[in-house]
């Protein structure tokens, strides 16, 4: 099932969010508009805004702040992408050159800062200290996750525990905050808010795990990024960690050298991953996270919005991009 089909119950809301995004990207500084339009215009799945909207609507939210906050989480996500691509020296995202490849590192970092600060301007408009607390905490944890990942780079001894800590800080945290915000905006009970938080954390983790699978088994054109980028950056993702744990001595030596240098033979590494159970193991961990996310939704009333959230759990682990 495609994302447009999954998000059909909130199609009008998504259009409203896009309108907010376009309006709030405005700046008197032309370069800011140019770069922001470039990265936003590249598309993207808009998953975090969609989860916020679906959670809010599933709890019968009738206001308009969900459009504003959905745009906020997309701005925060976009800012992290701009900064990530600079740190990782990436050249391709969503099927075209990264903003730093086109406009330079300095401009990308500074526009990322603009998007962060603009998002905080927007969240203040809700007048909710709770909303500001959730997003401020999430932004801080995401930054910690970025630093944790930096510490793991080129370290072949990274454990699964350290890997999952980075995933939950760096990737899953904004999914978690988005889902939690949807519940808070809708005046959820403590149980419903906790369920939304659990859902977001679990589904965000599942999404990252599948990204790590696709880095070694996907199609470069479909993914819109260079296959093997994580390996070239020296990032020990779960498939690599799994081979280090269960592979043959020669496979372990191959992976160790690749992580340490970032210059390993990608074909040989990919073969070692395929010959072991690394991809199946990583995918199974993703399925477990998605199943836990689905179970969290049992606290929500039956509706088309809840159905979309449930179907999203299957999409998260069955996708090819």
TrEMBL record:
It catalyses: 5 isopentenyl diphosphate + (2E,6E)-farnesyl diphosphate = all-trans-octaprenyl diphosphate + 5 diphosphate. Belongs to the FPP/GGPP synthase family. Its cofactor is Mg(2+). NCBIfam families: PRK10888.1. Keywords: Magnesium, Metal-binding, Transferase. Supplies octaprenyl diphosphate, the precursor for the side chain of the isoprenoid quinones ubiquinone and menaquinone. It is an enzyme of class 2 (transferase). InterPro entries: Isoprenoid_synthase_dom_sf, Polyprenyl_synt, Polyprenyl_synt_CS. One of its GO terms (biological process) is isoprenoid biosynthetic process. Its EC number is 2.5.1.90. One of its GO terms (molecular function) is all-trans-octaprenyl-diphosphate synthase activity. Pfam families: polyprenyl_synt (PF00348). This is Octaprenyl diphosphate synthase.
